[in-house]
């Protein structure tokens, strides 16, 4: 009987830990993944469509499960934002990306890494110090860095965000407004935030149909951006016709499966080497 109850207790313990591993709530699992370094940066090329050269990359987060499977951000970014865990996750991804692409920056003076930030990054100047610390330590000049602030969700405090954006710009970091056209802010942020670049969301690029028919929305956005002295990046470019259409309308840069999907370090470095090769 004694043996039986010990067995039961052991089984219960094993059961509980298995249960926890499998069914622990998402924020507990995110915390654990953060500790074990399971979030990794993937890199998607951003191409200067006037020259065909790779101008930089967007850093996109992936969660590597112990079995090797990659979990996309759609499954954890919202929770990470809601819990504030996105802040240490961003620090970790920045540090890792800077280490991994240090040589790429050294070999390509114009190359920029673009990081996605969230609203709470604009609550204070902490993000400015974080970026300075990470890149200074690796002796990477800050003209290799840009950040993206999304328009998809409303900013809590636009005035404060604008001040943080100015400070970032003053140290050489470029700032892009992401997912333009998808948020609730209309064109207000474009004027207020003083960003350097706008990224037109894939949604509007998709409208440039495969048959090359145009999109008045894209044309208007490009013309407004250019009048405000901003650069334009088109997201989600998948076809050559879209590329031609955008180039004819003076769009400087584009990103999308036509040029390359987000890939881990080794593949991205190989891509850069092929691009530089004869
Ligand atoms: P986003 O910032 O708009 O990033 C672009 C997304 O579009 C990426 O999805 C990219 O893989 C995808 N994409 C690029 N080109 C194409 C294309 O030609 N066709 C299609 N179908 N898709 C394309 P991903 O990597 O799944 O990321 C989704 C979102 O998750 C991002 O959207 C961004 O909002 C968020 N995210 C990703 N990494 C981070 C991060 O490190 N921090 C934060 N705060 N958010 C992140
Ligand atoms: Ca982005
Ligand atoms: Ca985007
Ligand atoms: Ca998008």
From TrEMBL:
Q: Where in the cell is it found?
A: Cell membrane
Which GO cellular component terms, listed alphabetically, does the Swiss-Prot or TrEMBL entry include?
Answer: plasma membrane
Query: Keywords, A to Z?
Result: c-di-GMP, Cell membrane, Hydrolase, Membrane, Transmembrane, Transmembrane helix
**Domain (EAL): residue spans on this chain:** 23-276
* Positions of transmembrane segments: 1-19
Q: Name one GO molecular function term.
A: cyclic-guanylate-specific phosphodiesterase activity
Superkingdom as given in the UniProt entry: Bacteria
- Please give the name of this protein: cyclic-guanylate-specific phosphodiesterase
Instruction: Output the lineage of the source organism.
Output: Bacteria, Pseudomonadati, Pseudomonadota, Alphaproteobacteria, Hyphomicrobiales
């Amino acid at each position: 009987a004694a043996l039986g109850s010990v067995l039961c207790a052991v089984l219960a313990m094993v059961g509980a830990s298995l249960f926890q591993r499998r069914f622990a709530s998402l924020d507990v699992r995110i915390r654990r993944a953060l500790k074990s370094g399971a979030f990794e940066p993937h890199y998607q090329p951003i191409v200067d469509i006037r020259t065909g050269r790779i101008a930089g990359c967007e850093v996109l987060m992936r969660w590597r499960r112990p079995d090797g499977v990659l979990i996309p951000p759609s499954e954890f970014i919202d929770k990470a934002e809601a819990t504030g865990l996105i802040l240490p996750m961003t620090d970790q991804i920045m540090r890792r990306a800077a280490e991994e692409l240090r040589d790429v920056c050294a070999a390509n003076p114009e190359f920029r890494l673009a990081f996605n930030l969230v609203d709470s990054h604009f609550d204070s100047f902490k993000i400015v110090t974080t970026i300075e610390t990470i890149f200074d330590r690796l002796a990477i000049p800050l003209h290799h860095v840009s950040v993206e602030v999304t328009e998809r969700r409303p900013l809590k405090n636009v005035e404060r965000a604008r001040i943080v954006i100015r400070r970032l710009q003053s140290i050489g970091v470029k700032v892009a407004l992401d997912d333009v056209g998808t948020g609730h802010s209309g064109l207000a942020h474009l004027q207020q935030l003083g960003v350097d670049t706008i990224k037109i969301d894939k949604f509007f690029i998709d409208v440039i149909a495969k048959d090359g028919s145009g999109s008045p929305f894209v044309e208007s956005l490009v013309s407004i951006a250019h009048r405000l002295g901003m650069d334009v990046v088109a997201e989600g470019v998948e076809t050559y016709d879209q590329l031609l259409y955008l180039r004819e309308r003076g769009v400087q840069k584009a990103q999308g499966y036509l040029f390359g999907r987000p890939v881990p370090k080794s593949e991205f470095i190989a891509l850069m080497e092929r691009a530089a090769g004869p």
